[in-house]
Amino acid sequence: MTGNDGAGSKHGLRPLVWGGAACLLFLPALVMRLYPQAGVDWTALDFAVMGVLLAAVCGLYEFAAWLGGSLVYRAGFGVAVLAGFLTIWVNLAVGMLGSEGNVANLMFVGVLGIAGLGSLLARFRAAGMANAMFAAALAQLAAVGIAMAVGGFGERELALTAGFALPWLLAGALFRYAAR
């Protein structure tokens, strides 16, 4: 952690990040209005949940900018946040394993917990963040291993779920590089 060196206030990405999030939230409403045959049918709760998720992502972006650090550190932070966001979004929308209501998907709360708690315990220092992200990748693969042992999931589904370890590994590698 490098502290607040003003890096958060001097960058020009803030409007792009928050504006992009607003556009992502607006997009399903636009599709529902203009292309009803597309099958997009969000409720007010869907919009509220996505709004909270996008606000959390943008807030974490602000936190990373406040922390400062090298571009590689911030890239690692961004990849980790994106991995967490996609994990939550996929599980809420369709589920990584089975449907969104399948209890097997609760294993991914543990993956997110490992990444988050590991980051806190590391005090957001690059070397510790690398370890936390590598542990999250391992937990992702362990969840797939458990799903394989339990059975009932297709090979393609398991392979895609295992692929979610890749952004955790990339974030870990970026943090490891930033720690040098």
List keywords for this structure.
180 residues; 2 domains; mainly alpha
Number of domains: 2
- Measured by DSSP, the beta-strand proportion falls in under 5%
State the share of residues found in helices, binned by percent: over 70%
Q: What distance lies between the first and last C-alpha atoms, to the nearest angstrom?
A: 13 Å
**C-alpha geometry:** flat
What does the largest sheet look like? none
Rg estimate, integer Å? 18 Å
Order of helices and strands: HHHHHHHH
Number of strands: 0
Tell me, rounded to a whole number, the average pLDDT.
Answer: 91
**Poorly predicted residue ranges:** 1-9
Helix/strand/pairing class, anyone? mainly alpha
Number of helices: 8
Please provide a brief summary of the model.
This protein has 180 residues and is mainly α. The chain folds into two domains: 9-68, no CATH class; 71-180. It has helices at residues 7-10, 14-34, 44-67, 71-93, 107-121, 126-150, 155-163, 165-179.
